[in-house]
Amino acid sequence: MSSWTKVCSVIALFFFVSSCALLPYEPTVDFRGSEKKGADLERYDDDLSSCKKLAEQTIDHNIEKWAVWPEDTERSMITRKCLTGRGWSVVR
Question: Which class for 9: exposed (0-12), middle (13-18), buried (19 or more C-beta within 10 A)?
């Protein structure tokens, strides 16, 4: 393998890994399970945006840990906990 090919492979790998870290977190919600827990299915979009805003206000942007997968960030954990507290069954 030539050095040019190795350099291109490393650069491609770097861009792949860094692009995964920049993806926004979108929770996967089990709507049937949420309905059984008493969540109002018509309020999901409002609850999601409220929880995302709450997470944005809560975290310290200078200290937020960066993870490879978006669901591992502090912001996503706060959003997930907020949605769960509002009666949503968050799968991921």
Answer: exposed
